[in-house]
Amino acid sequence: MRIEDSDRSVRIKRLRKKSMELPLRPGVYIMHNKSDVIIYIGKAKILKNRVSQYFGSETNHTEKVRQMVAHVWDFEYIVCDSEFEALILECSLIKQHQPKYNVLLKDDKGYHYIKVTGGEWPTVKSALQRTDDGAEYIGPYSSGWVVKQTVEETRKIFHLPDCNKTFSEKKGKVRPCLNFYIGACSAPCAGKISRQDYNATVKDAVAFIKGGAKLSVKALREEMERAAESLDFERAARLRDRIRAVEKIGDKQKVTFCTYESEDVFAFAGTGRIAAEVFIFRNSRLCDRHQFILDGESDSADFRSAFLKQFYEEHEIPPRIVLDDDCDDRELLEQLFSERCKKRTEIIIPKIGEQKKLVDMCRNNAAEYLSECTGRKGSQLKALDELAQMLKLSAPPRYIESYDISNTQGSENVAGMVVFLDGKPLKSAYKKFRIKSFSGQDDCRSMAEVVERRFTEYKNAENYDEGFGRLPDLILLDGGKTQLNAVTAVLKRLQIEVPVFGMVKDGKHKTNAIETGGGTIAIKSNRQAFTLVYTIQEEVHRFAIGYHRARSQKTMLLSELTAIEGVGPATAKKLLGALKTMRAVKSASLETLQSVKGVSKTAAQHVYDYYRLEE
């Protein structure tokens, strides 16, 4: 299968030619690297159309796709009778081969159980594995925090012990600990509760763990009413307090957000590195959660589809799957999951109501988890997410470039380019431009020249990671419709597809809107997207005007030197370049001036005499 191509362009041409010969039928394609290792598996509705896209123009490819294509040496394919059949085969092959460039979910957390020990005095505790010791195990749970939280809540509500003491009905043998005196434990170690009552309490606790707050409260209320009818008011009071504790815990868990008995909620945050958060609801109660950090160019519809396929290879499929945004192959995935679990499964994208609030909570947790793992602030991620929604971008813009022009009535016409990565300034990527194609003041022509120079460099660059070799996710111009139209025309001519918008200021020179070309979008000052856009506009203005002032000051200094007899622009530049400041030039000795390379002795003498005469 190995085919020796020394030149990358030759290999891409060969692969494109092969892809154009593929059938116009659904199927699965399998990409191999030079060592014949499978690096990517995908499905296609039409094999020829899908596979040929990889080996055409790279303009619309994400960074991950570029990297994958750079390693593809050959590919094979399997024709299927339908797109659904191709989907099933794709899932099976990905699970079997675990290709490098497919979305792979690696959860490093082991399984956890809630253990109810056997014997006359059972206890409730957490366990890392299931053993044949006569105990009852509830689970498994993939999240240790769920088990820990549930065990702690159960002990608080039912006043169960958290120690390893030996329990007995004989009183006075052991002095109870502080937990008994603060009402957190029934103290079976000191004989403060009968074995019969203790076992009944443990039974109620297990029912609470398995059934959740709603079912537990219903059973406890019925038991309380029976105790009251039989005039056992002491037991009825204990049950009343227990019901209140269960309801309080239920409120704390926010389970009222889940109005359905069984569903999984998914949300994603970030680009480049993506955090995925999954809430698992059973019996209308949050019973488990999963968190993943994944590599991906964006949380796109394609990414969500790939994530769901991989997630449900290992997890129970509920009747409802709730997503924060749409996914590819939605109907096919519903059909696949329904066949697997033998019951109807639907994928929901809520827009309003309690389910939307639940999705928002899930997304906020994903952003916080990404912040913990990457050091990026949750507020920055939320600002990028808001900006993407406001501008109708397919994904939050991770790499943003912004441009501004600065001059004084056409003189020293310059531009500045700033870069924001993940909502923070990336100063190593800032660029300065001197306008070269014309003289005078014309912000539209200046902006067009700068953008053309920048993206001409991109098309000539071989490195996609540094400097001008990286394609931004978004361009923000300091200006309105005229600047936007000028830049859009340049990008269209260069065949560069990047979203471009203008940043508009009000009469007080404050950011207040985004120019789209077909109108403006007002930005509310209380939104985090506003703070981000305002910061970008202020930063690019500061950078451009700083460069302009530096150029103007240098021009003034050169003019002062060229006023001296025998000193031309070239000599003035060499003097300032060598001695750095005008103060150093003025105070320099004759020997120092004459030692500057390229400065004649006569010119040095004139400069020396000029400033001594001034003194």
Description:
The chain has 615 residues and is an alpha+beta fold. It folds into 5 domains: 90 residues, GIY-YIG endonuclease (3-Layer(aba) Sandwich), CATH 3.40.1440; 142 residues, no CATH class; 119 residues, Nucleotidyltransferase, domain 5 (2-Layer Sandwich), CATH 3.30.420; 149 residues, UvrC, RNAse H endonuclease domain (Nucleotidyltransferase, domain 5), CATH 3.30.420; 52 residues, DNA polymerase, domain 1. It contains 19 helices and 19 strands. The strands form 4 sheets. Strands 12, 13, 14, 15, 16, 17, 18 and 19 form an 8-stranded mixed β-sheet that branches. A 5-stranded mixed β-sheet has the order 9-8-7-10-11, sandwiched between helices. A hairpin with a 2-residue loop joins strand 13 and strand 14.
Compile the SSE list and pairings.
Layout: H1 8-19, E1 27-32, E2 38-44, H2 47-54, H3 63-71, E3 74-79, H4 83-97, E4 112-116, E5 124-127, E6 136-141, H5 144-158, H6 178-181, H7 195-229, H8 233-252, E7 262-269, E8 272-282, E9 285-296, H9 301-311, E10 320-323, H10 330-341, E11 346-348, H11 353-374, H12 378-391, E12 399-408, E13 411-421, E14 424-425, E15 431-434, H13 443-460, E16 474-478, H14 481-494, E17 500-505, E18 511-515, E19 520-522, H15 528-562, H16 569-579, H17 582-587, H18 590-594, H19 601-614
Parallel strand pairs: 7-10, 10-11, 12-16, 16-17
Antiparallel strand pairs: 1-2, 1-3, 4-5, 4-6, 7-8, 8-9, 12-13, 13-14, 13-15, 17-18, 18-19
